[in-house]
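Internal QA ticket QA-208
Title: Verify multi-chain structure generation after dependency bump
Assignee: T.L.

Test input:
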Amino acid sequence: MSSTLKPCRLANFFEKVYWVVQQIPPGRVTTYGAIARYLGSRGAARAVGYALYQCRDKVPAFPAHRVVNSQGLLTGKFHFKDGLFMQSLLEAEGIQVCDNQVQNFDKVLWDPRENLLTIALYYDGER
DNA sequence: CCCATGACCACAA
DNA sequence: ATTGTGGCCATGG
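Actual output:
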């Protein structure tokens, strides 16, 4: 029963965050709050930021640069290897950034609630 | 166990 | 428009 279909173990909040972040298409961004809302915890935006902080050294590269704050500002850029790296990654995907602000923010914003179906976030029982 | 700290956000007033 | 505040979740002392 549990042998062939190994359910994705998204037991804890951080793992759910990581899963959503990996669904962001290149060239688009989303926000901490949008991820929190999608996961059903409206006010958990801070926790989303903390989750990204925890995986800042994760390999292979994790598209954390596609997460900005609710105004489109690159508030997390100082957690990359240098203060310009986040902007460089975005610009390499065709997103224009000026003065820490994502340009055409409403156009490139990708809201998981509008683009992801509600999936079953289930786990196999061992934590 | 309680308290403080975060890559945050919505809502007062 | 600009502040202040409470809430959210995981972690560490």
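Spot checks passed. The first helix of chain A runs from residue 13 to 22.
Status: verified.
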